[in-house]
């Protein structure tokens, strides 16, 4: 047996580069399930905020502080997860729906800020978040919420969409005096128009998504008010307890289904793609 003696200057071949690790997205794929649960969460946000304000005895400010603290805890858990988890994610959305509603209601009911002002301020705040997010990350797509920075921008944008949707929805309802059912129909038609503009007129997917995301808030609130408010006020009188419990049960069933089937999981992409 012979051995080859390395010649002077020879170096060992470098090891092959390690394959890039996949990046896990922290939000679900946008499917029919996504929009159904989103509307249900906005409905719960409206009815649960009213329920807590009426029954908890803490006042609007006290309830706001309590729900904000719960939201902060859930968001800490959400940020610490390595990938999208249906239960944690949708719990955060449900809580942020309640908090967004309470923020708008506090400004209007406790501080007397006109709805025109709150709507304008929340719209500007949301626009600022989007501008900073895009300048820092180069995208507003929810298909790439795979870093702490992008996730922070995402949840901040979600909070302002709920607050804006609450203020704008209340403003439209008061100014047009449509009633809950007609208001829900109006916002549903607006979302349909966005979908048509996206599919037929080339409106960008990201722009279409965020416009629809804002519009689902007043849609869900109108549905919640229609179901929960007394018949004399234009509702069907189910009450906030029954309406909240009903919608929470449906949300729980859908979230469990998604957690098991993973039908809303975005496949990971490799770094640099």
Walkthrough of the structure:
This protein is mainly alpha-helical. It has one domain. It contains eight helices and two strands; from the N terminus they run E-H-H-H-H-H-H-H-H-E. A two-stranded antiparallel ribbon has the order 1-2. Helix 1 crosses helix 3 and helix 2 runs antiparallel to helix 3. The termini are far apart. The model has no long low-confidence stretch (mean pLDDT 85). This is Membrane-anchored protein.
Major beta sheet summary: 2 strands, antiparallel
Number of strands: 2
Order of helices and strands: EHHHHHHHHE
Please indicate the percent range of residues in DSSP E strands (runs of 2 or more): under 5%
Strand order of the largest sheet: 1-2
Rg for CA atoms: 23 Å
How far is it from the N-terminal to the C-terminal residue, by CA?
49 Å
| Helix/strand/pairing category | mainly alpha
Overall average residue pLDDT: 85
Number of helices: 8
The rough form would be described as globular
Transmembrane segments: 56-79, 86-103, 115-133, 153-172, 178-196, 203-224, 236-260
InterPro entries: DUF347 (IPR007136)
Keywords: Membrane, Transmembrane, Transmembrane helix
Protein name: Membrane-anchored protein
